[in-house]
Every structure is written in structure tokens, then in C-alpha cells.
């Protein structure tokens, strides 16, 4: 078995997957982590990662080796006329460890391209490794298939066969050879059904339907009306929150639910300045935060939102208060906003609050709007929901792809 020597960058990226695995690090890495965790010029995400990694190292003491750096190890670095920095000190430590403990049996692991290139001077290519980026899950809740006339004839002659390997409640967009959409269907597990949704009608929004025949919004509308829980994702301006609220308000006014409960995690936007303390009650603080701005922009006025809260037809619940909450008996439409900012544990806790008589919408953009490093990658609760719930008969998932807010917003997506 190869001995694995991690530099600081790779260990920060990979430590959550180590689970007590044996590895080697330089004492320089420990010093770097101590500096990072409280450095004024580092953002909160990397500082939090450093703190969590140090906790991991404390918990798993004895399962890894810290090789102590000293200046005598720098001779190979100096002979190669390389700059002396923390990265090259870590490399010098790795060279020393391999020479003394495991000749030709060590893997040097770094995700720093510059350091990787330098390491090539001392180790063979087979002895250097970078941690691969996690492959993006491309599940979007539908498959978009172009069929020839022969393929279409074969497809429609077998309406009870899952020819394209769909999950239960996954959709199929059928296009002809000219790329014209000729049908959109949903696989039920036994057969295909046609899209089945109505216009969302409420006094707040009026009559709302998919914008300009946006097929992805049409699929979302169908999922809302036919599933207990729908996860919707997509870029800003694609209609996630507008359609979600339009549907919930329509259900409320038609007495199919009794209240709307919004679970919110009011994090500051990534890399933005934090304004600090907000005065007032919990509801007043929430209305002065991003969730308040969101509701006012969609519903129309702060007074109207406050009236709904006073009547208890609208409940705002920060995720910090979610433990012990139970929607059973409330006949609620639960709306989890900005769900990309939740880890797996928080998402699990939140979904376990939802009773049999409630419905749920999970809304977020886990591709580009995650605001804290703790919620990224395989720790993201929204991504985990997709993997665990897909194929369940109560679950639908839709990725919206068209930005309708403005031409400016469409161009900004490319930034």
C-alpha cells in the first residue's frame, strides 16, 4: 500500500473522506492551519474549513503521522535553485520522509498546480496525485430526447415500457428531427402520462402560467400539482420562487392548504459585508433580511406580508429554530428557500418536520449560489435530497434553464 503524503491544499479538500485513514503531513501544514483559522485576510469559509480540519486531526490523533520539518531538509530545494516558501518546505518534508521511511513507495498529493510541477523534479509522475474534482450530477428531472420517425413509432407503440430508463416521476421531452417539441410525458412507474397542470390563480399574483411556453416551467408546474415534494433548481431569474409562491398562494386561497410555512437560512451572501445586529422581534428581523426582501418583492408590499404573518397564514421559521417543529395537522405548504445553503444534517432535520398533510417545495441553485464552504460538494443537502428521493413516487425534481427576468440578467449569468 502506498504511503500518502498530503499538502495543506489537498488535505483541506479531502479530509472529510479520510474517515481515520492513515496518511502523512508536514508540521508546516499544522502551522498553516493554525494561521488560516484566524487570519484577518482569509474569508470565513476557508477559516471554517481550517477549524474543522484541526478538529478532525484532534479526533483522529494516532491514525496519521506528522513529519517534523527542519531546515536541513531544504538541501534538495536549494540545489534546484527554488524559492523557499511554505509549499517548498512541505515538499522538502515529503522528500525527506520518502527517503527515510518508504523509498519508492510514497504518493505526494497536492492540488496546487505550481507545487505539482515542482514536485515533478523530485518524484516520478506515478508518485504525484491531485484529488479529482467531484463529477457534477447531471440529473435534472427530465430527459430531452430527439427521435426519428421510426424511433417515435416504436416509442408510442410501447406506452408501458420504460425505454429511456426514467426514474419514477421523471419527465420525457420528445422532439422530432427538426427539434420541435411534440410531446412531454411523465413516467409513473407503470406508464407515461401527459402533463397535467392548471393556471395558478390568486388575488396576489392573478393568473400565472409557464412563461412564453417555457417547457421547463411547465414541467415544474406539473410536478407541483402532482407530487408531495418538488425540488426546483436553476439560475437567478428562471422563475423558481415566482412559480413556487404563485402555486402556494393559489393553494391557500382555494383552501387546499391552510398556511404557508417558509423555512429560511438567512446567511449573508458569499463575499459580502455583514451588517450585524438587526433590532426587533424574530419576524421583524426576518423581514429586514433577505427573506423579507424576497417576500416583499414577490407579494407586493411589506404591509401585506405583515398582515399574513399576523393572521398566521404565513409563518417564517429560521432554520435555527426548526428542531422540534412539526407541521402535522397544520395542512401546510412548506417552502424551503435558498436550499443550496444547507448541509445534509440540516436538510434531514428540516424535512423530518413535515407531516403527512403537508406539501413541500425545495428551491435553490446549488450550482452557483452556495454561500458557505460547509455546504459545498458532497456535503450539500440539496444535492443529497436529489440522490435519495429520486425515484420515490412522492417526489419530483426540475431544473429550470431559461432566464426570463431581463436581458441584463441573461448576460450576467455568463459572468
Quick structural overview:
This protein is an alpha/beta fold and 415 residues long.
Quick tags:
single chain; 415 residues; alpha/beta; six-stranded parallel β-sheet; four-stranded mixed β-sheet; 15 helices; 18% strand
Low-confidence stretches: 268-275
Q: Span from first to last CA?
A: 44 Å
**Number of distinct beta strands:** 17
In terms of DSSP E residues, the strand content is 15-25%
Instruction: Please estimate the helix content.
Output: 25-40%
- Pairing-aware structural class of the strands and helices? alpha/beta
Radius of gyration: 26 Å
Number of helices: 15
**What strand line-up does the widest sheet have?**
14-13-15-16-12-17
Given the C-alpha coordinates, what overall shape results?
Answer: globular
Round the mean pLDDT to the nearest integer and report it. 88
Structure characterization notes:
With 415 residues, the protein is α/β, with parallel strands linked by helices. Helix content is 34%, strand content 18%. The protein has helices at residues 8-14, 27-36, 44-59, 75-79, 86-101, 113-119, 149-156, 215-226, 240-253, 282-287, 290-299, 302-310, 344-351, 381-389, 407-412; strands spanning 3-6, 23-26, 64-67, 106-109, 128-129, 142-146, 171-175, 181-187, 192-194, 200-202, 206-208, 229-233, 259-264, 314-318, 332-336, 359-364, 395-399. Strands 14-13-15-16-12-17 form a six-stranded parallel beta sheet, sandwiched between helices. The protein has a four-stranded mixed beta sheet with strand order 6-7-8-9, with no helix packed on it. Strands 1-4-5 form a three-stranded parallel beta sheet.
